[in-house]
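Researcher: Sequence recovery benchmark, item below. Answer with residues only.
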């Protein structure tokens, strides 16, 4: 382990915001993490756990200890004729785990292809796309409490998974570090093709009974066509969550806006496309200085040059205000703001 002081985070966040961390350290095992958390030198320091930096916006320099979790390893723990239990270290790039499962013909996370970030961040956000969520295949995870260094295993019922959220994003926010995750994948189930954009893409390309490799490739192509590459244009993917409204509220909106884009949600409610709301307010492709929305997807806020975190946040808050004024809907940030 090497402790760095006043460490640049420009290459550690996908927005490419040029900020620094007072203290920065990278850990490669749970033991190293426990050692850092128990070190008396750092007890009074504010701490933040960094995964892939793909879902975070730094408004300013981080005045504390930033811990980059780089615990590796993908292992098959159990396997039978029907399923396989896989454990992955929190530092593994999420898409590497997806590729491992797709190559093994293990069904369950192929629709989550190319979601940026690390395995350790996946349960925090309960990542999801194209009809699948992380929680669908989740079994358990291990990790440490930041304050005490105590180890704990969480099973699915402990995690309070919901739409783009979990106990780790709410009650335990910044107080628990995921070190490894276990997922159970199927060897028999067919791919999930319930998401219209995915099924339409496959049908258009003449793929009738797709393999999971074909589904994964289709998802990758769809994502690439809509989302700018953060290696070229700084962004953190979807900046806001899709808001969920009552069926009554949706009917009123539908009566006024026949082209509204929506999806079914839990408890008889309806999820509305945040991208559609933003586009209807005239913000798709709009740019102010070095900050703007993608011309291909209104939900993606981009750093087109040397924008600061504060400038990006100010731009996002203007979008949020206009959506609230026009539709009476409060958008909620999906990105973690520091």
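Model:
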């Amino acid at each position: 382990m090497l402790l760095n002081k006043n460490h640049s985070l420009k290459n550690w966040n996908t927005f490419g915001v040029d900020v620094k961390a007072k203290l920065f350290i990278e850990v490669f095992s749970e033991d190293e993490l426990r050692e850092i958390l128990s070190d008396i030198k750092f007890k009074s320091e504010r701490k933040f756990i960094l995964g892939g930096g793909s879902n975070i916006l730094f408004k300013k320099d981080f005045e504390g200890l930033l811990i980059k979790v780089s615990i590796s390893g993908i292992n098959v723990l159990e396997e039978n004729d029907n399923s396989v239990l896989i454990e992955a270290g929190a530092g593994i790039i999420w898409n590497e785990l997806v590729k491992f499962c797709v190559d093994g013909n293990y069904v369950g996370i192929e629709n989550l292809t190319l979601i940026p970030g690390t395995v350790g961040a996946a349960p925090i956000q309960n990542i999801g796309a194209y009809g699948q969520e992380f929680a669908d295949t989740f079994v358990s995870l291990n990790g440490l409490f930041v304050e005490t260094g105590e180890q704990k295993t969480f099973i699915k019922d402990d995690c309070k998974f919901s739409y783009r959220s979990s106990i780790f994003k709410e009650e335990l926010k910044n107080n628990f570090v995921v070190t490894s995750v276990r997922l159970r994948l199927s060897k028999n189930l067919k791919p999930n093709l319930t998401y219209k954009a995915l099924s339409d893409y496959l049908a258009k390309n003449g793929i009738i009974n797709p393999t999971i490799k074909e589904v994964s490739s289709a998802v990758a192509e769809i994502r690439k066509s809509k989302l700018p590459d953060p290696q070229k244009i700084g962004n953190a993917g979807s900046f806001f969550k899709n808001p969920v409204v009552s069926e009554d509220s949706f009917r009123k909106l539908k009566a006024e806006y026949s082209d509204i884009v929506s999806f079914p949600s839990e408890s008889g409610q309806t999820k509305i496309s945040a991208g559609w709301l933003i586009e209807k307010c005239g913000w798709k492709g709009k740019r102010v200085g070095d900050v703007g929305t993608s011309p291909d997807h209104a939900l993606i806020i981009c750093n087109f040059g040397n924008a600061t975190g504060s400038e990006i946040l100010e731009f996002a808050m203007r979008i949020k205000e206009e959506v609230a004024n026009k539709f009476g809907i409060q958008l909620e940030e999906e990105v973690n703001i520091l």
